Amino acid sequence: MTQTASFAVREEAPEDGVFVIAVDGEADMTTAVKFNESFFSAARSGVRRVVADLTDVSFIDTTMLNALVVGHRRMMRDHGHFAVVCSGPRVSRVLEITGLGQILDVFGSREDALAHVRQASG
User: Fold this and answer.
1) Which long-range contacts does 67-75 make (Cβ < 8 Å, 24+ apart)?
2) What is the pLDDT of residues 58-85, one digit of tens each?
């Protein structure tokens, strides 16, 4: 029996130098691999302002949490800025319980996250 993917990863560049990776559905190991591919491709091309939009994520596991930490650390190393959008109670709770909400810059809306990476860059 064939299973269809229960996730989607979309890349958006709302303006020059800013990259949004939007994740929908279940953010598990398969999703984390796609997220990392998108993230590292952008980082290698010189992008230093990245937003991970988890607004439509229904489930998140440790591999995706690790991908967020790796993204955060890479942007810090490269003097860039990384923000996470999280408005759902399930994912917000996981970030809270794991302590990642204290490490990552987490926002309730994409607009707030974009404003943060723009301001931090200027």
Assistant:
1) 67/32, 67/35, 67/36, 67/39, 68/100, 68/104, 69/100, 69/103, 69/104, 70/36, 70/39, 71/35, 71/39, 72/103, 72/104, 74/39, 74/40, 74/43, 75/43, 75/48, 75/50
2) 999 999 999 999 999 999 999 999 999 9
